[in-house]
Amino acid sequence: MSRRLINWFRFASPASFYPLAGRLAPWFAAAAAIFIAAGLFLAFFVAPTDYKQGEGYRIMFVHVPAAWMSMFIYLVMAGYAALGLVLNTRLSSMMASALAPTGALFTFLALWTGALWGKPMWGTWWVWDARLTSELILLFLYLGFMSLKAAIDDPRRAARASGLLALVGVVNIPIIYKSVEWWNTLHQGASIRFSSGTTMEETMLLTLVVMTLGFWMYTIAVALTRVRCEILEAEGRASWVAEALARERGR
Fold this sequence. Notes:
The chain has nine helices and two strands. The chain is mainly alpha-helical. The chain has a single domain, classed as Four Helix Bundle (Hemerythrin (Met), subunit A) (Up-down Bundle). β1 (192-193) and β2 (197-198) form a beta hairpin. The two termini are 34 Å apart.
């Protein structure tokens, strides 16, 4: 048992995690392509037309998973930032940095697809709705995290400062999730609830699940690829980096 724990803990080292990330990233990328292609096929050709919103509701199959991922990635990013602050582990801070651009991408995608949905349904591209506004704040938190880390030259100080910002921003996640319950908003309530199940048609729910899995796989693949770049930038002068690159060139 202790030997297994030691084997897992060794991947906390950038030198051990770098080759592992390189092996795993292509598999997650392939899974992402399969799930997203299947999800888009279900969204456009299999899922039935909504009796109220017509064909325009299909943008939900991108909008909802993107919104879910924007919040989930932020929580994971903040978790890695907390580990970096508490345990002073470099790889944790690198993982937080690797996740931030993808989280910002999904937040922007959620806002953009929400605007495309809002124009025909609400008659406007944007309203200062509680959920829309809190989601916009989330985008600013992602951008602030990346900007703050890039603005500080010393890597350790940059990791600490951006990590603290990430932890402070966690308070926005329950605000986004509960905004439609706490305030009167134009945004519709959740169709999927942990306590009472779902009111969605089965094919629609399956499509949402498949698209969400695709976005998860994409996030993991991109984070693994980006953290390898973070490791190379931070450990560029280490001897193991030259050896690892030589092995990759020799394949």
